[in-house]
Amino acid sequence: MRRVSLFASALPLAGLAAAYPRVDGPAPQAAAVQFASRAATGKTVIPKDSFNSFDTHWSYNYPWGTDHNGGARMNKQKVSTANDVLTLTASPATGEPPATNGGQQYPVHYLSGTVFAKQQFTVKPGGGYDFEADFKAPVAKGTWPAFWLTAVKGWPPEIDIAEWKGSGKISFNTFNTSSQVAAHDVTYPSPENWHTIRAQIRTASATDVWVKFFMDGGEITTQYGKNYVNSAFYLIVDLQMEGSSGSPGPSAGTTFQIRNVQVTDYNP
Ligand SMILES: *[C@@H]1O[C@H](CO)[C@@H](O)[C@H](O)[C@H]1NC(C)=O
After folding, report:
1. Signal peptide: which range, if any (predicted)?
2. Residue nearest to atom 4 of ligand 1 (CA)
3. What distance in Å separates the CA atoms of residue 200 and residue 2, rounded to the nearest whole number?
4. Domain with 175 in it
5. Residue nearest to atom 10 of ligand 1 (CA)
6. Could you confirm whether 158 is annotated as catalytic?
7. Tell me, what's the pLDDT at 3?
8. Residue 174 CA: which ligand 1 atom is closest?
9. Contact criterion met (CB below 8 Å) for 94 and 27
């Protein structure tokens, strides 16, 4: 999504990470066994039926408000849930003032829906998370749905677990800086069907993580994020429009559906 922040990150991330040394030495046996079983099974922190109890797990709009870097303004009315499926709907709108982000203006041509997880996610030394969900995502020009993680403070870090930029492809991206980004696009088959996307995030060093991306059970690519350890993330599901997906977007309404979101915590 290439989130542009007004603020450069002032956090001394490397210094923070150094303050949390990796546990490399031999641990007492009981502790080691406990760690091993917990690391192997993980702890479910967002359950597959989270949309059945929406207010427990999710909030409306972006964590910073209704606007971002595209042609949609988010509105609670454009979010609905039924049978544990979340539906975000974008509809053409006129007379909306432009959105402002990172000192740039974006003409607003749609009202659409966005939600973010109430919980924040911080990879701890030796730990990580799995993020998984099923999607029915639009791929037409001007539609820009995504399921992504972005830094609570500053920017980056950002991991686009799944992003569709109006090209018929799906993109998997990890940002070190705005110009240092790993971006991997693959053809997105039959968008009218459900597809399962999973990102597995684990520490690669005291400061860095690796991210493995899977689609429908098949491994797609591995990327690395610098200084992601001990950095808090928001998890966002949005149906942004135009922007990176081109314009004009569709003249009719567009929907983005997601179900079975599951987040598993593998932190020690
Ligand atoms: C980001 O930083 C990590 C850790 O240094 C490195 O392995 C990776 O290649 C970098 N990614 C890009 C796109 O430069």
Report:
1. 1-19
2. 226
3. 20
4. 14-27+46-120+136-194+214-257
5. 224
6. yes
7. 62
8. 13
9. no
**Domain-embedded: residue 226:** yes
What pLDDT, on a 0 to 100 scale, did the predictor assign at position 41? 83
Domain count, the chain: 1
| pLDDT per 10-residue tile (average), the chain, 268 residues | 50 37 40 47 96 97 98 98 96 97 95 98 98 98 98 96 98 96 97 98 98 98 98 98 97 97 97
With respect to residue 204, please indicate whether it lies within any of the assigned structural domains: no
What is the model's pLDDT at position 156? 95
Q: What is the pLDDT of residue 13?
A: 38
- Tell how far the Cα of 209 is from the centroid of ligand 1, in angstroms: 10
The answer to whether residue 38 sits within a structural domain is: no
CA of 177 to the centre of ligand 1 (A): 9
What CATH number corresponds to the domain at position 103?
2.60.120.200
Tell me whether residue 5 is in a domain. Answer: no
Is 192 an annotated catalytic residue?
no
pLDDT, residue 1, reads: 66
Detail the DSSP E strand segments found in the chain. 43-46, 58-60, 72-74, 79-82, 85-92, 99-101, 104-106, 110-112, 114-117, 121-122, 128-136, 143-151, 158-163, 169-175, 181-187, 195-203, 209-215, 218-225, 232-241, 254-265
Query: Model's pTM, two decimal places?
Result: 0.87
